[in-house]
Amino acid sequence: MLMQRWTPRDLQALIDGLRAEGVRVLGPRVGDAAILYDEIETLPIGCGDEQAPGHYRLTARHDQSRFGYNLGPSTWKQFLFPPEEAIFRVQDGEFISCREQPDKMAFFGVRACELAAISIQDRVFIGDFADPGYASRRENLLLIAVNCSQASGNCFCASTGDGPAVGVGADLILTELRPEDPYYLVEAQTEAGQLMMSAIGGPAAATGEIDARDEVLAATRLQMQREFATEGIAEALYSALDHPHWDVVAERCLACGNCTQVCPTCFCSSTREHVNPVGLGVTHMRRWESCFAADHSYLSGGVVRPSVKSRYRQWLTHKLAGWELQFGVSGCTGCGRCISWCPVGIDLTEEVAEIRRPL
Amino acid sequence: MKDPLLPHLVEMQSWQQESELVFTFQVAPPEEYGSFRAGQFNMLYLPGMGESAISISGDPADRNHLTHTVRAVGNVTRALHGLRPPARIGLRGPFGRGWPLAAAEGRELLLMAGGIGLAPLRPVLFQALAAPERYQRVTLLLGARSPEEILYSEQLLRWKSDAGLQFLATVDVASAAWRGDVGVITDLVQRAAINPQQTVAMVCGPEIMLRFCARRLRELGVASDAIHVSLERHMQCGTGFCGHCQLGPYFLCKDGPVFAYPAVEPYLMTQEF
Ligand SMILES: Cc1cc2nc3c(=O)[nH]c(=O)nc-3n(C[C@H](O)[C@H](O)[C@H](O)COP(=O)(O)OP(=O)(O)OC[C@H]3O[C@@H](n4cnc5c(N)ncnc54)[C@H](O)[C@@H]3O)c2cc1C
Ligand code: SF4
Ligand code: SF4
Ligand code: SF4
Ligand code: FES
């Protein structure tokens, strides 16, 4: 399939066209001093960000870029696995499913690490058992991905192998070039993507422009400041469960659970019973939960992981070791969100390096 | 698409007190239920209360009843304590992997249970004692807090006298009428006739008991991978979605709750893991 060359106006035409077809277009929006994912009509222009451990700030780039920032606290997970969801309700002694036919959605501006995170959650929710809510939302989804033309201070997807080049699974892949007066290289990976390309049209890209895409990606790779050794990490962590460094992290960690909330792959949930207004029975709800919460591990004999140390260890070993054995992939795609949004700036790559250091 | 999180409505058929806080009840299986394997569990749901993982404690060959034995400790289990037939409750299952009964054929079965830990082991007894020719010997070692808290005592004594079950029990606190042992379950192992090299052990009870039993069995010469344990963690789904039941790389709900001991030993030996 040929690569097309689009203008910013073509991007807008795609958003408008999808909306006209009744597709919920979800994408980046500036809000609360951060890039958030939400229902959109246009793309933000000239936004950048500055990220470091425990630090995130929006900046002005003084250019016309549409994708000149990296990841904010939102993840696409909120649309496929909503923070709170009704599973079933009980009325007049009957159990009635609350699963509904979902709207058709398009995610606009999915980064490489985010696409990888979606495929990781697919393995959780469409595996030995299938969650019908997740599965039906996933089936009614268009993925419009974008190659990153810059890395944030906390990105390390090159180390995990999940980016910055978009991998398989997207319908369309965009690459933004020449941010002061941007244009886009567009590739399709699926039939739905090809349909979008023929609907918008646009000239075929020249060979030189394909090289330009690869140069941008190479530069992004070079910008990444974090290196993270993933080889042998599962065995290394499981053989270091009593490492003294867990106590050192625990002294800083507040067990606030921010890291699990912003992580695009974390899937823990808890259920609760919602009592509806008189006559409407009870609804069985499911909401996001974190292994940093005290009651995540309660049993009739007490809590399995009472200390902050044991909870930090659960997060890190699950993410980087258990996951691999459970799902055949790591639970970390190198997005860096947990580093930016940790109130005390704990950086998992540094903690792992400490724990892997021979005593 | 079938929703593995949507319970079936089932009707309670019987309810019986076992001890002060423990009771056994039966429900009619949902139509599409099929059969269960010894050691599997159901998720029981009460509207407004929530769901709990409860082992199936009845006979796997009985397709007309699903039996559960419950200790009233919290929201759902206390509410179940107050229900009587023909109350209707929610049920989904069966979940998890059961005991490796097929792998134990031709060998000796040694069951060790502490308290309510007997519930998920009773289906093994139903099945093994119905086909005694398949095993060299079937032994049950039981630990309970007091004689009054021994579950299914009439049935166990019947199995002992009529079905060839080797059955020994010990209690923490004896009553005047108690003729059995007083002390820990690991001490019973010496008193039982067993052939360690031929033994496949299945152990269920508090985690500390599992660790001590495994140690004792190994000292006697039972092969490590012939020791199987059933573990407990908080469970909210049974399907690998909610994440609560994890132990290292395992989801207890779908990879367990029964494990060969060596697979879980390093994690059980790590404090607060
Ligand atoms: C595979 C498996 C099989 C099982 N089989 C059986 C069985 O056959 N029979 C049986 O009786 N039990 C069995 N259990 C145990 C049973 O699932 C638990 O005891 C269950 O939690 C009881 O549910 P509940 O709603 O009654 O208790 P809950 O209300 O969940 O309370 C249980 C305990 O946790 C405490 N607690 C409640 N909420 C919190 C919180 N938010 N934070 C901290 N602590 C809290 C309570 O005080 C109480 O001590 C099994 C468990 C598993 C995993
Ligand atoms: S663990 Fe951190 S860096 Fe890795 S995917 Fe989750 S939020 Fe991103
Ligand atoms: S156990 Fe912790 S790290 Fe693992 S998915 Fe759940 S919240 Fe995330
Ligand atoms: S590591 Fe940071 S974000 Fe995660 S729980 Fe600890 S303090 Fe909160
Ligand atoms: S009980 Fe929910 S993941 Fe196992």
Description:
The complex is a heterodimer of chains A (359) and B (273). By secondary structure, chain A is of the alpha+beta class. Chain A is 34% helix and 23% strand. Chain A has two domains: 201 residues, no CATH class; 103 residues, no CATH class. In chain A, the strands form four sheets. Chain A has a seven-stranded mixed beta sheet, with helices on both faces. A four-stranded antiparallel beta sheet of chain A has the order 7-6-13-12, with no helix packed on it. A two-stranded antiparallel sheet of chain A has the order 4-5. The model of chain A has no long low-confidence stretch (mean pLDDT 95). Chain B folds into two domains: 88 residues, Translation factors (Elongation Factor Tu (Ef-tu), domain 3); 130 residues, Rossmann fold. Chain B has a seven-stranded mixed beta sheet, sandwiched between helices. The longest helix of chain B has 14 residues. The two termini of chain B are 36 Å apart. Chains A and B meet through β6, β7, α4, β12 and β13 of A and β14 of B. The structure holds flavin-adenine dinucleotide (FAD), iron/sulfur cluster (3 copies) and FE2/S2 (inorganic) cluster.
> Biggest interface and its residues per chain?
A-B, 57 and 44 residues
Distance between the termini of chain A: 54 Å
Instruction: Please outline the major beta sheet of chain B.
Output: 7 strands, mixed
Largest sheet of chain A: 7 strands, mixed
Q: Tell me the number of helical segments of chain A per DSSP (H or I, 4 or more residues long).
A: 13
Strand numbers in spatial order across the main sheet of chain A: 1-11-10-9-8-2-3
- Total helical segments of chain B: 7
Mean pLDDT, all residues of chain A? 95
Small-molecule binders here are: flavin-adenine dinucleotide, iron/sulfur cluster, FE2/S2 (inorganic) cluster
- CA(first)-CA(last) distance of chain B: 36 Å
Gyration radius of chain A (Cα, Å) is 22 Å
pLDDT below 50 for ≥5 consecutive residues: which ranges of chain B? none
The oligomerization state is heterodimer
Structural domain tally of chain A: 2
What's the pLDDT, averaged over the residues of chain B? 95
Strand content of chain A: 15-25%
Text of the CATH class of the largest domain in chain B:
Alpha Beta
Instruction: Name the shape of chain B in a single word.
Output: globular
Q: Secondary-structure element sequence of chain A?
A: EHEEEEHEEEHHEHEEHHHHHEEEEHHH
Count of discrete domains of chain B: 2
Structural class of chain A comes to: alpha+beta
